[in-house]
Amino acid sequence: MCSGRVDLGxxxxxxxxxxxxxxIGACRLNECNYVTHGNYDAxxxxxxxxxxxxxxxxxxxxxxxxxxxxxxxxxxxxESVNRFVGQVKALGPVGQSEGVDPEKLRxxxxxxxxxxxxxxxxxxxxFRIPVKTRxxxxxxxxxxxxxxxxxxxxxxRLAMSQIMLLLAQKPMTTGEMAEIVGLNQSxxxxxxxxxxxxxxxxxxxxxxxxxxx
Length: 213
Prior knowledge:
The chain has helices at residues 8-16, 38-57, 74-91, 102-114, 116-126, 134-141, 144-169, 174-181, 185-197; strands at 22-26, 64-68, 201-204, 209-212. The protein has one domain (3-169). The strands form 2 sheets. A two-stranded parallel ribbon has the order 1-2. By secondary structure, it is mainly α. The chain has 9 helices and 4 strands.
């Protein structure tokens, strides 16, 4: 299977199922067997999800790795897998060394899962760069421009996805939501004001809590 088939949804499902790490093997860059540059697409997806791990999930991005090799590179595959397994074992069960509460991690991963169709679109339309070199990809995905686009296109939507999942369970105060989501109350209030104008949430005066509309 071409590594370009491994999108953000595959990675999210792996971690959501309790996997402690995800290893992706891909063809050498600029040696795509299908002339589709699918390995660059996979590389971009890995870099995006590492950002999600850092900014939203609270997970060590070292739990996700992509290795580029040819079919003849059995030794590279073995060495890379052994090195990655050792790294993941040192980190321990997913979320444990990072100090992430299992229930909060489950909720955060579910929030990512709900946005996968949107994330696929953003990756394809906004994050695929024309220059196909490893250096160009690492430069772009490590740039302030990518940080800005991530905040505008992904960060806010991931926060709202998580908030909507919380409110689907029960009405909550901004303080309760802030503690779980990991934002301050003013940020939660901003999301609530925006969502109220869109008719997505309402403020329950009797309970002094926000609820789904």
